């Protein structure tokens, strides 16, 4: 917090700082609370009618009455990362997009509209990487029309918590009634430590997802469209640990320059805690190292403690959060 020469806390932010990362201290709402003050750090996304809206790294929006502020300052644009490969949000967003391609896409300015028959939100959402080339309301109308023509709900994928992410866009979508349905995190780490975790013995690698691999995949009844998405990417590898009736474990990796992505790492519930997920990732990591990759990324849900513990042990750490906003359910769809 900012402290004056006289030793008093000061509010050193104004409405002109909207869009910047700030740190504020305010009086607690509950007068009898154990702590008199509450601290909030995030991006100042609006300051209207005496109320500040701050979006935290997680994507959560916090409303703070201006009258409750006791201190505030502009903070560094993003916290320094203590481990893992250096990467900007835009670099990771583009790499992630190439690793999970839609069947159909179209550009609206610097927004990519993606569709794949409804198979996963990632392949059926807008990826905004800059200016759509028109006012936001017009862009959202065009988005809803494009997805409506394909019989799909409109989703916009956004990110928070790193330099260059889209807290302001999140706030604008929420102001217009768009609903945040899914939040997850992108984690990054070095690739070599993953390869060193296990020998990877018994793991079979292939270029395609065969029937055995698909029988273990969590999404059953995979269509031809889904197979096209699963097989998309610069250099795609599928890993299988054979089992008696179906695979004991599977995984997918896409190698793209210095990056390797891990996804669909799944283990037969009856064979968990045997190191099979580690073996699958180690085998895929070795293949990615052979192809020249050095860094890795993956996506993890906040409510998956087992996966988070596994990836933390491999040296991964959270880089940013990402969210999918669904169009509001109103009559004015513009379709």
What does this structure look like?
- The chain has 335 residues and is α+β, with helices and mostly antiparallel strands.
- It contains eight helices and 16 strands.
- 36% of the residues are buried.
- The model is unreliable at 1-7 (pLDDT under 50).
Secondary structure topology:
Layout: E1 21-27, E2 37-48, E3 51-55, E4 61-65, E5 69-74, H1 89-98, E6 104-108, E7 111-115, E8 126-128, H2 136-148, E9 155-160, H3 167-175, E10 179-190, H4 192-195, E11 204-206, H5 211-216, H6 224-230, E12 235-241, E13 249-256, E14 259-267, H7 276-290, E15 295-301, H8 305-313, E16 317-326
Parallel strand pairs: 14-15
Antiparallel strand pairs: 1-2, 1-5, 2-3, 3-4, 6-7, 7-8, 9-16, 10-15, 10-16, 11-12, 12-13, 13-14
């Amino acid at each position: 917090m900012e402290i004056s020469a006289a030793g008093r806390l000061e509010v050193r932010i104004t409405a002109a700082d909207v869009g910047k990362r700030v740190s504020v201290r305010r009086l607690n709402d509950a007068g009898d609370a154990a702590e008199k003050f509450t601290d909030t750090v995030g991006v100042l996304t609006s300051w209207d009618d005496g109320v500040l809206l701050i979006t935290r790294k997680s994507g959560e929006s916090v409303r703070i009455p201006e009258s409750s502020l006791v201190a505030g300052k502009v903070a560094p644009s993003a916290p320094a990362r203590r481990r893992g490969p250096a990467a900007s949000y835009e670099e990771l967003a583009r790499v992630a997009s190439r690793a999970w391609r839609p069947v159909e896409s179209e550009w609206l300015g610097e927004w990519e509209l993606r569709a794949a028959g409804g198979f996963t939100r990632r392949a059926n959402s807008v990826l905004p990487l800059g200016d759509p080339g028109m006012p936001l309301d017009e862009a959202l109308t065009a988005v809803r029309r494009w997805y409506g023509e394909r019989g799909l709900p409109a989703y916009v994928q956004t990110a928070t918590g790193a330099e260059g992410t889209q807290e302001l866009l999140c706030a604008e979508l929420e102001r217009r009634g768009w609903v945040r349905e899914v939040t997850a995190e992108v984690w990054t780490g070095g690739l070599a430590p993953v390869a060193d975790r296990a020998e990877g013995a018994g793991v079979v690698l292939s270029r395609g997802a065969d029937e055995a691999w698909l029988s273990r995949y969590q999404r059953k009844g995979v269509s031809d469209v889904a197979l096209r998405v699963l097989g998309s990417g610069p250099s795609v590898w599928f890993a299988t640990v054979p089992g008696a009736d179906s695979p004991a474990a599977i995984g997918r990796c896409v190698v793209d320059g210095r990056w390797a992505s891990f996804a669909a790492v799944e283990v037969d519930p009856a064979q968990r805690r045997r190191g099979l997920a580690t073996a699958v990732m180690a085998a895929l990591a070795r293949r990615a190292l052979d192809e020249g990759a050095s860094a890795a990324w993956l996506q993890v849900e906040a409510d998956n403690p087992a996966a988070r513990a596994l990836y933390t042990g491999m040296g991964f750490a959270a880089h940013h959060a990402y969210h999918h906003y669904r169009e509001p359910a109103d009559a004015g769809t513009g379709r």
